[in-house]
Write a structure and sequence with these properties.
Blueprint (H helix, E strand, L loop, with lengths): L17 H15 L3 E5 L7 H14 L4 E5 L3 H4 L5 E5 L2 E6 L1 H7 L1 H12 L1
Parallel strand pairs: 1-2
Antiparallel strand pairs: 3-4
Helix pairs in contact: 4-5
Length: 117
């Protein structure tokens, strides 16, 4: 941003792309340092390199904070250290990507649908 925190954005200032708005929202959440982060499709409007950086930051956060992330991007899912599969409001299974692929048919079917897109 041209003037850092003093940059005016939005209608009267600098126009932001969808990805820039998304990154700004994530940054605002990080600055608040809350105990629980709810992240829904945080990587929908960003490039692969930025996605990897965000995912690494989220993993560091998850060591001291509760992070709940919803995503449909296979590359992100495969990096998540603990996945909880919920189906019909029930906790079906939890574990790593590899464990769930081998032991949870619901997860395997969902992941195959995502991965084929």
């Amino acid at each position: 941003m041209p003037k850092g925190f003093d940059t005016v954005i939005g209608d009267g200032g600098t126009k932001l792309s969808g990805g820039q708005r998304q990154l700004l929202s994530i940054a605002r959440g990080l600055l608040r340092n809350t105990k629980i982060f709810l992240l829904d499709e945080i990587n929908s409007n960003i490039d692969g390199l930025t996605e990897r950086n965000i995912v690494q930051t989220v993993f560091r956060l998850s060591q001291n904070h509760t992070v709940i992330m919803a995503t449909h991007r296979a590359t992100t899912i495969m990096q998540i250290p603990r996945i909880i599969v919920i189906c019909d409001v029930k906790n079906v299974a939890e574990g790593t990507h590899e464990k769930l692929l081998n032991e949870c048919m619901t997860y395997k079917e969902l992941f195959e649908k995502i991965d084929s897109n």
